[in-house]
Structures are given as structure tokens and as C-alpha cells.
Amino acid sequence: MIYLNGSFLPLEQARIPVLDRGFIFGDGIYEVIPVYSRQPFRLAEHLSRLERSLAGIRLPNPHSAAEWAVKITELIAHNPWEDQSVYLHITRGVAKRDHAFPQNTPPTVMMISSPLAAPAPEHLARGVSAVTAVDNRWLRCDIKAISLLPNVLLRQQAVDAGAVEAILLRDGMLTEGAASNVFVVRNGILLAPPKSHLMLPGITYDVVLELAATIPHEVRPLTETELRGAHEIWLTSSTREITPVTRLDGQPVGAGEPGPLFRRMHGLYQEFKAAVMRGGAGTSGG
Ligand code: PDD
Asked: Which of 46, 50, 96, 235 has the fewest CB atoms inside 10 Å of its own CB, making it the most exposed?
């Protein structure tokens, strides 16, 4: 069952007019919220990022956070899986094709849930391969826009090279992955690029930094040289949690296997998730 403009209906019955600005221009915003044991994880944080993304494209939020929470809870209940990935998608609605904003046009609001698979055990045990690529996206990567053509091309570039993710470099500096944030470990210190207009402020990124309170860490710009000389590299996202990268551009990362800090953080993350799920909501403060 999916949600479309106020109603729940089977996916096969859902229809979007061809003039929807999401279809024509990629003019919209999305979110992906992980749901564990039928409870959305970090819901408040996802909804506030949604609010910021909408403000970033000057699209009024059609619902309050409380209304979204009700709709998301209903969507979860309509679907059979314990762990779900809830995808929220809002476009600037249906209007005659014209780049400028249409007047008095209601947005299109859509939500789809799909089963959320835990990260593959072999990825956690052995790590994954990534390639580097030039970050050729626009300068508002902090907005979670549905226009994802550069991300699609970058991810495919990785897949064509037998890798799972493209790690992006802009002007010699690490930004993020095609659909993930990137952490680096050097000499026992966890390093992460600071939030800016050049990367998506990941919800998982925030959780990892909170859990790093007892681990030496620095949030600062990271160079390509630091990335290439890393002892560990991790990818983070709501659907992949924390995934160790053990090959970069065909070369081993550190010892070529998931590192000690990854194992520690993976453990902390699983404990945190379990604690939050026992306690309810999954918002900050845990
Ligand atoms: N992507 N950076 C980019 C470009 C992303 O697309 C994502 C997530 C992230 C990680 O953000 P978070 O931890 O909040 O999931 C970083 C989602 C999962 C997607 O597009 O499917």
C-alpha cells in the first residue's frame, strides 16, 4: 500500500499525471526514513531535514510534523514488514510546463514503504569496494532533491567498475558518496567532513558523531590525499547503516579488511538502535 495525496491505495492503482513537475523537471524533495520493529528511527530529525529541503526549494510544507507522523504511522501499519524503508516524495504539483513556479497548484505528496534489509553480512565482514569520482553535482547538495541525475550517473560509474559506491571529490576535497556520507579513520582518529552546501546532512552521520563521543574524532575538511591514505573508510546512510570500505579504486584501504574502529562503531550503533527501539520514538537524546 502506498500513500498518494491523502489516500492509501495499492501501488498498482496509483497514478501520477504526466505533467507532474516531479516528472517534468525533477522539481521536488524526498526523504528516506528507516523503520525498525515498526518504529521510525530518528523521525523528528528526518522531518526537520524535510522542512529544510522544502524551504530550500521554496515549497511550503503541506503538513505539520505531527500530521506527517500520523501518516507515516498509518503507512507502516498498512504494510507487512517489521523493518521498512519509508520513502517520502513531494513535488510542486501538476501544471502546464513552464519553468517558473505555478500559481495555486497543490503539491503532489507520495509515500512508499518497502522492506528494509539489514546490511549484507559479507559487507560487514569483508567490506565493500568504492571508487573515487569527481563531484560534478550542483552547489546545493544539502537539499534532498529528487533530481538525482548526477548521483545516478556517479553510482552507475561505481557499479560499472565492480564497486558499490562512488566517493566524491570536489576540488581535491572529500564531500560524500553518491548516496551516502563518508567517514575516514587515520591513526586512530575518526574524521568527517563538516556539513556544508556540498553534502547532504546525513541523519546517520549525526548518529555516528554522537556515538563517537568517547572516540577521538575531528570534523574538518579532508583532502584527497587523506582519503587515499586512510586506515579505514566508512559509508553511512539510513538504508546501509555503517558499511566499511576495504578497497578504494582497486587498492586496499589500510589492512584491506574492516578496521577496529569500524567494529567498535558498528557495535555502538546496534546497541543504540536497540535502546532507542526499546524506548520508543527514536529521536535525538536516545
Ligand atoms: N540517501 N548523502 C547522500 C547524497 C544521500 O543520498 C544519502 C542518503 C546520504 C545519507 O543520509 P542519511 O544518513 O540521512 O540516510 C548522504 C538515501 C538513503 C537515498 O537516496 O536512498
From this structure: 96
